[in-house]
Q: What sequence folds into this?
């Protein structure tokens, strides 16, 4: 049931409209034009406001502005006397949906209310569609369906609704900047600039100038005044990547910006107000750096208002097949190649790799495969050596507990490494023995023990070096 708020100093109008709209099925709230109506608007939701322009105790135009600020999508219909039509037209410019002139037609007012509600519904649907589109666009590069990533997506949406400072942590290549961009895109600041700066990429003197700007003559080469990143991000978001690499002096200046919300250009004396949201990121343990005297504790607590960590790729391996598919399509389209297919064995090897470079490393490998390999089906031989020779991920290590079968586990590990060595060596048993650090005789023994069949290739010149392996 929609709620109509009616504000008029004439009791007869309040009573009449109250009866009319209740019969139409609306919930009706009324106020005789007293200052308490401001509290009513602040404390309760309403779907339509019908308001007189001229009232003894309050100004209808002022109430209109207050209502639009509190409830932007709610339509407002103004009631005016014949002599105040000019002011009613001004109300349309301020945000009123329409106006009626006393004595007004009740049926006309009913139509305006119905039209206003339909207009509100369309506006809210449009806002929702835009928000959904921004959300999808924001998360487009943040690929994942794992529980960890779903939690990150939900957290980003909640954080975006606030204006608080955010600290994002995580290993290099996990996508901290993409998370920051998603927060910005979903926030009220999305129509303004997103400015990103890597604090580790610039020496101290240049970083200070880039962040806060400088005045002419501040240092050699400062031939003109220059705005800093904080000024460039006005009303938007500034992303400070690798904030843990800042020098102590720059940390002091950043703390002051966070505290005062003003910047002072290098060499300048004026305090320039800035309205920016700050998102900082680091791959370091800032608490440890505080203990080492390399990061200021007060700055840490200013940055750490809202905190979240982007998990490394090895902790969300279920996202890897989805990422592989995305990166294959992206780079095949980019290079004009036919879409390639990875064998299940290759996908398994990629899933079992520890990914020290995280998502960035995975994308680089897929891009390299697309660029270099002519074949459409990608096999294990196309993968770089670091993946083929990788040890099991630390997160996959077996936890010792009652009932653990050590012999069965060792058999499983030995079989796995024998098969992988066979793939790396192309079935050449001499090379397999070298890879595994075994003698030729020991290798033959293990192949027999774990029933990994060997095939001898007749080769008079190479003799036993011609032995080849078929793994099953």
A:
């Amino acid at each position: 049931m929609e709620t109509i708020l009616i504000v008029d100093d004439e009791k007869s109008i309040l009573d009449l409209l109250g009866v009319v709209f209740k019969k139409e099925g609306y919930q009706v709230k009324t106020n005789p034009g007293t200052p308490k109506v401001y509290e009513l608007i602040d404390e309760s939701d309403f779907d339509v406001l019908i308001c007189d322009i001229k009232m003894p105790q309050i100004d209808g135009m002022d109430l209109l502005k207050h209502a639009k600020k509190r409830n932007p999508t709610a339509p407002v219909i103004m009631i005016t006397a014949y002599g105040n039509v000019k002011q009613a037209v001004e109300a349309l410019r301020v945000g009123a949906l329409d106006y009626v002139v006393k004595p007004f037609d009740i049926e006309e007012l009913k139509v305006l209310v119905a039209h206003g509600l339909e207009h509100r519904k369309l506006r809210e649907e449009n806002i929702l569609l835009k928000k959904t589109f921004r959300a999808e666009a924001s998360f487009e590069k943040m690929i994942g369906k794992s529980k960890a990533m779903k939690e990150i997506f939900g957290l980003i949406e909640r954080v975006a609704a606030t204006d608080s400072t955010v600290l994002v942590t995580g290993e290099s290549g996990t996508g901290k900047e993409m998370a920051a961009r998603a927060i910005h895109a979903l926030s009220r600041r999305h129509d303004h600039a997103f400015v990103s700066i890597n604090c580790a990429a610039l020496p101290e003197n240049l970083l200070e100038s880039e962040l806060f700007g400088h005045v002419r003559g501040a240092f050699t080469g400062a031939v003109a005044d220059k705005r800093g990143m904080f000024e460039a991000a006005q009303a938007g978001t500034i992303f400070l990547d690798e904030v843990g690499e800042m020098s102590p002096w720059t940390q002091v200046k950043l703390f002051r910006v966070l505290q005062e919300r003003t910047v002072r250009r290098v060499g300048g004396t004026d305090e320039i107000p800035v309205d920016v949201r700050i998102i900082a990121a680091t791959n370091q343990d800032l608490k440890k750096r505080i203990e080492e005297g390399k990061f200021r504790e007060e700055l840490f607590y200013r940055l750490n208002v809202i905190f979240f960590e982007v998990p490394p790729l090895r902790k969300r391996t279920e996202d890897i097949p989805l990422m592989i598919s995305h990166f294959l399509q992206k780079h095949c389209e980019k290079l004009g190649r036919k879409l390639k297919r990875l064998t299940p064995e290759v996908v398994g090897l990629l899933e079992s790799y520890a990914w020290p470079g995280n998502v960035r490393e995975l994308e680089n490998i897929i891009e390299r495969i697309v660029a270099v390999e002519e074949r459409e089906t990608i096999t294990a031989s196309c993968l770089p050596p670091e993946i083929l020779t990788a040890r099991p991920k630390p997160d996959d290590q077996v936890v010792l507990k009652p009932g653990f079968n050590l012999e069965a586990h060792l058999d499983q590990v030995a079989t796995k490494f024998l098969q992988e060595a066979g793939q790396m060596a192309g079935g050449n048993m001499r090379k397999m023995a070298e890879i595994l650090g075994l003698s030729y005789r020991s290798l033959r023994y293990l192949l027999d023990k774990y029933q990994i069949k060997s095939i001898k290739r007749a080769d008079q010149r190479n003799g036993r070096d011609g032995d080849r392996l078929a793994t099953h």
Notes: Residues 455-472 have pLDDT under 50 and may be disordered. The domain at 158-310 is CATH 3.40.50.300 (Rossmann fold).
